[in-house]
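Fold Annotation — chain and its backbone

Encoding — discrete vocabulary of local shapes
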Amino acid sequence: MDKPIDILGVPVDRVTYDDVLQFIDETLVLGSQNQVVTVNPEMVVLAQRNPDFMSLLKSSSLRTPDGAGILWAARRLGFLPLPMRVTGTDLMARIIDQSQVKPWTLFLLGAEEGIAEKAIQNLKNQYPRAQFVGSYAGLSTHEGDDEAIRRINLAGPNILFVAYGNPAQEFWIQRNLSKLPSIRIAIGVGGAFDFYAGKRRRAPAWIRNSGLEWSYRLFQEPKRIGRIWNAVVQFSLLILKSRKSR
């Protein structure tokens, strides 16, 4: 795997979906525990003012480029173009698909009560042989850790999807992964459970490919304006400032 590029101090790996699936295959053979982060512009902005989050991103096993803004930033900063976006939602689907033919067992943690169960129900219609072994809404805070750990360890999955939104889901994985001996891959997937449960509609492919998915999310959820400001405006300004200083 190529050396990661540096986006405002945050390492981002030059990977495709196939690269990540190969990484998972190798990880399950080696038996190591790994945190995978799908890096988007909002996370990069947050890392500038949160040293703990910056440290987490740097220490993660794999950081995929999730977001058109990350691909744009790589070009503006003079790096070779990243091959593609590798989003949490689409990566989750590809892993679920592979679990139909590989010994990959899956657990869904997070979202509102009942959402993960509904997501599994819908996903089983599309991937009937997928190996789901459990789900639990739980809490993103320390108070809910013990019960979530108990349930996950009882189910014994080797891949964990966590949907508490960033940075809560990334910090949850960081502080609890070592307490989950069966888990080999843990990934924060943001709003993916909501999409697969049918609670929210994802932007059409042409909007996602055009880099305007943020506008679709804002239309659906106007209260996200602060987060979108960080991801679109503040991130762009930081990149342009960094490019000028370089």
Observations:
- The chain has twelve helices and eight strands.
- Residues 20-245 form a domain with the Rossmann fold fold (CATH 3.40.50.2300).
- The radius of gyration is 17 Å.
- The chain has a mean pLDDT of 90.
